Amino acid sequence: QVQLVESGGGLVQPGDSLKLSCVASGSGFSTYDMAWYRQAPGKQREFVARINSSGFLSYESFAKGRFTVSRDNAKKTVYLQMNSLKPEDTAVYYCNAIDISAWGQGTQVTVSS
Known about the structure:
This protein is 0% helix and 49% strand. The protein is mainly β. The strands form two sheets. Strands 2, 4, 5, 6, 9, 10 and 11 form a seven-stranded mixed beta sheet that branches. A hairpin with a 5-residue loop joins strand 5 (46-51) and strand 6 (57-59).
């Protein structure tokens, strides 16, 4: 059974950067397509970015140019580098192993002055 654990969230000011990490347990990580989602208070969970096992990348429009998704299969870790953060980026960020529908517990990102 694969477990996903996110970390790296926190309270930052507008314009700052954060790098989120999601570490997977178990085997098979390198074969999984991975994604990041977020959920703001009172809103539905929304897609942020995706990185396939092949390295294919996909971003939601608000993430293009500011966020970068990457992975290190040796460390069983997927990352989300977030730059030029805005207050509207405030949300709980979740990683998702698409192939096996596994989710982490989320990490809170708050962008506020």
